Amino acid sequence: QKEVEQDPGPLSVPEGAIVSLNCTYSNSAFQYFMWYRQYSRKGPELLMYTYSSGNKEDGRFTAQVDKSSKYISLFIRDSQPSDSATYLCAMSHANFGNEKLTFGTGTRLTIIP
Amino acid sequence: DAGVTQSPTHLIKTRGQQVTLRCSPKSGHDTVSWYQQALGQGPQFIFQYYEEEERQRGNFPDRFSGHQFPNYSSELNVNALLLGDSALYLCASILSGTGGGRTEAFFGQGTRLTVV
Predict the structure, then answer these.
(1) What is the pLDDT of residues B62-77, one digit of tens each?
(2) DSSP-assigned states of every residue in A38-55
(3) Helix, coil or strand: residue A80
(4) Distance, CA of B81 to CA of A107 (rounded, Å)
(5) Would you say B94 and B101 are in contact if contact means Cβ atoms under 8 Å apart?
(6) By CB count within 10 A, which of A24, B43, B57, B88 is most buried?
(7) B43 to A88: CB separation less than 8 angstroms, yes or no
(8) With 60 as the cut, is the pLDDT of residue B104 above it?
């Protein structure tokens, strides 16, 4: 069993829809939870991070962490064609820059104009 | 400020050959991590270098080795290439935190390695 599970999709939604992306994990030692966006032929870029449980909002993006269920989510409101990319969840045990990141497989998202 | 730069962008190698990939971190960043991303998969941690030493290592065989230079740039070497080594190799640049505080990993564009 992988430490981090993520539905690979692909997921296609119409422009303006709310998108929900999810990951589950098995290692209860994870404390930092991140979402990366990766455009085709590019490296991942950090979208949001959350420490421990709770919600965090940044513009159209909301990240949620439920440590009791070992479940994290990313919501995208008013989705735009420019949001079309692969979304990767990632986790680490400690200060996430210095610690290794454990990634999900990524969900390929397409926003249809 | 230049971001993380990796070279080459693409390369094709034959099974059994050796390859060296290069990474220059962001200005002022002292830590480099390497990841392997197979097609349709998430990145997998190979190892991390700090102060010219390997600080952490993932579940990769000894065929994968690395080096960090005094200017913080880094190399990833892979010996005896296998077809399964075909992947996007990502370098992440980090400014190591001191006594707490969040630090962020910035990724380069990657080197796409094809083994034939």
Answers:
(1) 999 999 999 999 999 9
(2) E-TTS--EEEEEEESSEE
(3) coil
(4) 29
(5) no
(6) B43
(7) yes
(8) yes
Exposure on the CB side of residue A75, measured as CA atoms within 13 A? 13
Closest-CA distance of chain B to residue A88, Å: 7
> Which chain A residues touch B44 with a CB distance below 8 Å?
103
pLDDT in tens, A50-71: 888 889 999 999 999 999 999 9
Q: Which residue in B97, B100, B107 is closest to A45 by CB distance?
A: B107
Q: Which of A112, A111, A109 is nearest to A37 (CA)?
A: A109
A-chain residue closest to B97, CA distance: A98
Q: pLDDT band for position A1 (50/70/90)?
A: confident
Q: CA-to-CA distance for A106 and B35, rounded, in angstroms? A: 15
The answer to whether A78 faces chain B, any CB pair under 8 Å, is no
- What whole-number percentage of chain B has pLDDT above 70? 92
Nearest-Cα distance to chain A for B14, in Å, is 23
B99 pLDDT more than 70:
no
Distance CA A16, CA A111 (A): 9
Q: How far apart are CA A90 and CA A87, in angstroms?
A: 10
Q: How many CA atoms lie within 13 A of A11 on its CB side?
A: 24
- CB distance from B74 to chain A under 8 Å? no
